């Protein structure tokens, strides 16, 4: 069975693994794309466009879930990234773009545990400022025991530039992502001095 992925091009968003992101879909071709995905379980990848050809682009293919559908056809959906892929051959251009893809496997080993824990503390400090934090605290603690979730939520919430997010996403080593995030965040935006004695990953903030 062919592995197919639809492309949802957006300039300021990108699918990341394990992170559900909301979208309001109003263009007819993308409404059809979502409806087709609901029927066939076909993956959808949100990726910033660079020209019109997505061949050989690396992205995260996700699963869309319908939240609300309006009388005029518009819909609110959530797309959660599930697998990293390379788009290898365009199979459809109309009404929306579709590609065959090959799955990419990452080195998930983490040896930079202190740096990962530092990122976790920095991320926890940031998300604790968000609305509804108190009601989601227990769930967030559980999520932030997973190295991939720490990496990807840090990328989403603390890396503002979409090009930098995409560069992080395409890296195939968790350790390399952690190092890149530290290098990206520390000198540019954040004083990491309060986090220089990171906690053990199994402890709670």
Describe how the helices and strands are arranged.
Layout: E1 4-9, E2 20-25, H1 28-40, E3 43-47, E4 58-69, E5 75-92, E6 98-103, H2 113-127, H3 133-143, H4 147-158, H5 162-170, H6 174-185
Parallel strand pairs: 1-3
Antiparallel strand pairs: 1-6, 2-5, 4-5, 5-6
Helix pairs in contact: 2-4, 4-6
The fraction of residues in strands falls at 25-35%
* Superfamily (CATH H level) name of the largest domain: LON domain-like
State the helix count.
6
- Nearest-angstrom radius of gyration? 18 Å
Helix content: 25-40%
CATH architecture of the largest domain: Roll
Beta strands, count: 6
- Domain count: 2
In round numbers, the mean pLDDT is 88
Q: Structural class of the secondary structure composition?
A: alpha+beta
Overall geometric form: globular
CATH class membership of the largest domain: Mainly Beta
Elements, N to C (H/E):
EEHEEEEHHHHH
The largest sheet is:
6 strands, mixed
How far apart, in Å, are the first and last alpha carbons? 45 Å
| Low-confidence blocks of residues | 196-205
Question: And the CATH topology of the largest domain?
Answer: Archaeosine Trna-guanine Transglycosylase, Chain: A, domain 4
Task: Walk me through what this model shows.
This protein is of the alpha+beta class and 205 residues long. The protein is 35% helix and 26% strand. The termini are far apart. It is globular. It is built from six helices and six strands.
């Amino acid at each position: 069975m062919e592995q197919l992925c639809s492309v949802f091009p957006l300039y300021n968003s990108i699918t990341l693994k394990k992170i559900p992101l909301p979208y309001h879909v109003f263009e007819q071709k993308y409404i059809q794309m979502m409806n087709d995905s609901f029927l066939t379980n076909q993956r959808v990848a949100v990726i910033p466009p660079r020209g019109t050809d997505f061949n050989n682009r690396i992205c995260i293919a996700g699963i869309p879930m319908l939240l609300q559908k309006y009388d005029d056809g518009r819909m609110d959906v959530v797309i959660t990234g599930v697998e990293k892929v390379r788009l290898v051959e365009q199979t459809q251009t109309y009404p929306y773009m579709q590609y065959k893809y090959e799955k990419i496997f990452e080195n998930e080993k983490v040896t930079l545990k202190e740096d990962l824990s530092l990122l976790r503390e920095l991320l926890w400090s940031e998300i604790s400022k968000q609305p509804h934090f108190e009601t989601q605290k227990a769930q967030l603690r559980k999520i932030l025991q997973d190295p991939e979730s720490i990496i990807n939520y840090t990328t989403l919430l603390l890396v503002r530039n979409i090009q930098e997010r995409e560069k992080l996403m395409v890296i195939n080593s968790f350790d390399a992502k952690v190092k890149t995030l530290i290098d990206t965040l520390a000198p540019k935006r954040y004083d990491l001095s309060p986090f220089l004695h990171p906690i053990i990953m199994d402890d709670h903030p």
